[in-house]
Give the backbone structure.
Amino acid sequence: MRRIYQLAVVVSVYLAASSSGLAQSRDGPRSSPGKERKEVTFDAFEITYAVTNPLGKDYARIDFFYKKAKVGQMLFGSAITPGSFASYQDGQIDLYFPAGHYPAIIELLRNEKEIVLFVEFEPVPPGGSPRVMLGGLASHKMPQAK
């Protein structure tokens, strides 16, 4: 089964779209102390839910897009054996969850409006690569003006 969802995402000033047309990846406003945070916006996502042969292991995948360019993915299920549960490379966020998290994440995607993918990592030394400590979805609800 494959479904594509288009989102009307309202993005906070921290996540304004870049002039290049690709998703902007910036430090988020809510980093944990001593950590750096990157957030990536998306305006569509595609769901694939499957079972593998011959072992019958479950597999689910959500690909995230901004202006048709892939900016991240979430993988779920017993068919997945990740080397890392959260990673950030070339502006793309990859996340891996147990299958039991799938319903809650789908619920967030259906009901929240201002959502971003995020990762937090320790500060990166020059020439080094990020060691991601935390990753997931975050909501940026802006207060209504009175």
Remarks:
- The first strand starts at residue 2 and ends at 6.
- The chain has one domain: 2-139.
- The chain has one helix and ten strands.
